[in-house]
Specification:
Elements lengths: L12 E4 L6 E3 L10 H8 L5 H17 L6 H12 L5 H7 L5 H4 E3 L3 H10 L3 E6 L5 H7 L8 E4 H4 L6 H10 L7 E5 L2 H9 L3 E5 L10 E2 L10
Parallel strand pairs: 1-4, 1-6, 4-5, 6-7, 7-8
Antiparallel strand pairs: 2-3
Length: 226
């Protein structure tokens, strides 16, 4: 069950998680990106779906064991090594080649309108995300990068949420105290961590809420705070 907002007067900014809050992968998979199999098959046509599935599982383990978001090429080397494919510079380059963000990603229906209204109301906004350094470019390609004054990105800072440095990098960049910032994430545990650090927080639960952490069902509910 979602929790109605309390309209705290001191809030001046929203700190957004990205994946699962602002955008989602077309096809449902974040990593590797959706064209991974197609790109590898262009170099090594004999790889089977079962081999790809096992390699992706190995990549998931690599992610889980990394203290921050790993280098993109290092991640691909783990997958390719598991596939028995040589990680040549040509293949690594093909795997990270630039494609329009709209080919791989999409924003949720409630995102752009909510950001527009918050911007018009003078609400400051930043992003706190476990992501690779190209996240601002992805947001720009999806038409939402213009709303954000600052980014706290795990691959840049060398840590991941709930490390306090992730949250504080964003609020410090806005020159605001934690109590002046509302943090929004689709992971209730990360919202709870922010609340313990003095931030306001809401978990975004577009489906049924499964936590006691204060939650919202849609980003449009943020407008009630401002």
């Amino acid at each position: 069950m979602t929790t109605p907002p309390a309209s705290p007067a001191r809030l001046r900014a929203v700190l957004f998680d990205s994946g699962g809050v602002l955008m989602q992968p077309i096809g449902g998979r974040w990593n590797p990106r959706a064209d991974f199999e197609q790109t590898v098959l262009a170099h090594t046509p004999s790889i089977t779906p079962e081999q790809f599935a096992a390699a992706i599982t190995e990549g998931d383990r690599f992610f889980a064991d990394s203290p921050s978001t790993p280098d993109y090429d290092d991640y691909h080397r783990v997958l390719l090594r598991h596939l028995g494919v040589e990680p040549t510079s040509q293949l690594l380059g093909d795997l990270r080649r630039e494609v329009p963000p709209s080919v791989l990603l999409e924003t949720y229906p409630d995102v752009e309108e909510t950001l527009e209204v918050l911007s018009r109301r003078g609400v400051r906004m930043a992003v706190v995300s476990d992501a690779w350094p190209d996240l601002p470019a992805l947001h720009a390609g999806l038409g939402i990068g213009r709303f954000f004054e600052a980014y706290a990105i795990s691959a840049v800072l060398g840590c991941t949420k709930p490390d306090p440095r992730m949250y504080r990098h964003a609020s410090d960049a806005l020159d605001l105290a934690p109590a002046e910032c509302l943090f929004v994430d689709d992971d209730p545990d990360l919202v709870a961590a922010a609340i313990r650090l003095g931030y306001a927080g809401r978990a975004l639960c577009r489906g049924p809420a499964v936590s006691d952490v204060p939650s919202i069902a849609s980003l449009t509910q943020l407008l009630d705070f401002f």
